[in-house]
């Protein structure tokens, strides 16, 4: 392995939105830093899975005026859209009420521009981090290209694990060209014929994206979306709604009490002519206080019983995509079914799936349907993050990290520091991004991820100051990153 004469102050593993935002704010807080290293195999920083997709039909799900790399400048991205001319290139991104919902790739372009402003202060190592080991000076990060990066402080900003297909489907349809386990893979949907019968397993945001893509490709065949509860992601209110209600002053200690209070707030808001969106927005804003007040068994109960309903109300779809779903449901080309998968069988190129109804008058009844394409839209497999991610698997084996008690991601303390086998948080190992949500609760939407990234950058800056105070005579300039072997 290659070596460095001195460790770099900070290395960030993962260069999607979370990792890039930590770097952005750290360099703002500590402009004296000559370099922050980001280890990311993708060619572009700041995009990740969500904002690296080039499909123009996949739009941001939050109005542009609420998306920014800087919480103190909430209109930054919206202003950039106008100044850069991106809105002129996509007239359908602007709604009559002035809200903008451009393609997600456009937000990725915005992120790239923000990072390029730092020049070579951000060193992008185009590789995958494979192992992290403790050293007397911090950590050694072994990369897939043979390099070893030595760092005093490490921030884990690893991405979501890929979807995990139901074993029934994986066994029956393995090798079928139109059994699509990862709909985000480039070109994954392009080979589906215009008249193809399509089954989408899942009915949330990913399903909506898939339908929007198929519609853009001119698909006219029947689409069936199936999920255990048959819940579809909701849309945005027709006009801006201020958050209302208070769920943090005396937070509920049980899921039953929390649901009762949310329903009461929604009812009181409705009596005043307010949309339910405002109450749910307040729950999101106060999410960490709500989550932390619930005992562990109640958190597990919330995930099991309430999370599916929360997700479809909290994570709303862009109005353009909502209109596509409404149109296709109205003309009969899209059907949502509340059902579970009972059997799967391949007959030539046809994929047959038996569904068992879970709701309505047909509850308990089964039907077998034939499909030409089956697409997985169940979302990231959070429960398997330590088995699917080889880096985290190695870190767990070394005692450096462990899953949180609910297996939503990585166990961290309230400062975002990783808790390992010794039950104590590491001073110089942090987690940025949604994989810290086992501790913080609501940590999936971009505004929440941004605010959390600022907190992590602040903690890292404070830790750097502590290190420098303890070693005032040490050189503060990081050594050069060794070239690829």
Automatic annotation (TrEMBL):
Q: Which residues form the signal peptide?
A: none
Stated name of the protein: Hydroxyacylglutathione hydrolase
According to its UniProt entry, this protein's organism is Methylocella silvestris
Q: Which InterPro entries does this UniProt record tie to the protein?
A: FAD/NAD-bd_sf, HpyO/CreE_NAD-binding, L-asp_N-monooxygenase_NS-form
Q: Which GO terms describe its molecular function?
A: hydrolase activity
Q: What keyword terms does UniProt attach to this protein?
A: Hydrolase
High-level lineage: Bacteria, Pseudomonadati, Pseudomonadota, Alphaproteobacteria, Hyphomicrobiales
The UniProt entry, under PANTHER family, shows: BLR0577 PROTEIN
Keyword Hydrolase assigned: yes
Q: Which SUPFAM superfamilies match?
A: FAD/NAD(P)-binding domain
Pfam families the UniProt entry points to: NAD_binding_9 (PF13454)
Top-level lineage group = Bacteria
Q: Where is the FAD-dependent urate hydroxylase HpyO/Asp monooxygenase CreE-like FAD/NAD(P)-binding domain?
A: 11-160
């Amino acid at each position: 392995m290659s070596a460095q004469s001195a460790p770099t102050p900070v290395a960030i593993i993962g260069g999607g939105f979370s990792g890039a935002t930590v770097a952005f704010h750290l360099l703002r807080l500590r402009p004296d830093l000559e370099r922050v290293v980001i280890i990311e195999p993708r060619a572009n920083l700041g995009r990740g899975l969500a904002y690296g997709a080039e499909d123009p039909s996949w739009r941001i799900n939050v109005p542009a005026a609420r998306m920014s790399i800087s919480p103190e400048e909430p209109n930054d991205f919206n202003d950039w859209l106008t100044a850069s001319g991106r809105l002129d290139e996509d007239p359908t991104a602007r709604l009559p009420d002035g809200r903008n919902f451009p393609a997600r790739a456009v937000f990725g372009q915005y992120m790239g521009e923000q990072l390029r402003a730092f020049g070579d202060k951000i060193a992008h190592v185009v590789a995958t981090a494979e192992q992290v080991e403790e050293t007397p000076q911090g950590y050694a990060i072994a990369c897939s290209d043979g390099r070893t990066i030595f760092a005093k402080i490490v921030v884990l900003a690893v991405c979501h694990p890929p979807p995990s297909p139901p074993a029934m489907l994986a066994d029956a349809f393995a090798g079928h060209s139109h059994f699509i386990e990862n709909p985000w893979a480039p070109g994954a949907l392009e080979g589906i014929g215009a008249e193809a019968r399509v089954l989408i397993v899942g009915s949330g945001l990913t399903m909506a994206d898939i339908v929007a893509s198929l519609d853009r490709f001119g698909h006219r065949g029947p689409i069936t979306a199936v999920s255990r509860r048959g819940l579809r992601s909701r849309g945005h209110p027709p006009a801006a709604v201020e958050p209302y209600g208070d769920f943090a002053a005396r937070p509920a200690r049980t899921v039953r009490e929390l649901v009762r209070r949310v329903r009461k707030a929604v009812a009181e808001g409705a009596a005043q002519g307010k949309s339910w969106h405002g109450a749910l927005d307040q729950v999101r804003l106060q999410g960490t206080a709500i989550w932390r007040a619930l005992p562990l068994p109640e958190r597990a109960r919330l995930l099991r019983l309430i999370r599916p309903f929360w997700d479809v109300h909290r994570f709303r779809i862009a109005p353009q995509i909502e209109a596509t779903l409404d149109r296709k449901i109205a003309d009969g080309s899209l059907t949502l079914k509340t059902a579970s998968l009972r059997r799967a069988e391949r007959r030539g190129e046809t994929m047959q799936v038996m569904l068992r109804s879970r709701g309505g008058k047909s509850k308990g009844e089964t039907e077998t349907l034939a499909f030409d394409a089956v697409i997985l839209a169940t979302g990231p497999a959070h429960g398997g993050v330590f088995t699917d991610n080889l880096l985290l698997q190695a870190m767990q084996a070394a005692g450096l990290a462990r899953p949180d008690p609910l297996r939503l991601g990585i166990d961290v303390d309230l400062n975002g520091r990783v808790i390992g086998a010794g039950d104590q948080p590491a001073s110089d190992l942090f987690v940025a991004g949604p994989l810290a949500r086992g501790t913080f609760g609501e940590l999936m939407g971009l505004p929440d991820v941004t605010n959390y990234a600022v907190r992590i950058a602040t903690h890292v800056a404070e830790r750097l100051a502590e290190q420098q105070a303890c070693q005032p005579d040490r050189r503060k300039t990081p050594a050069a990153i060794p070239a690829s072997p």
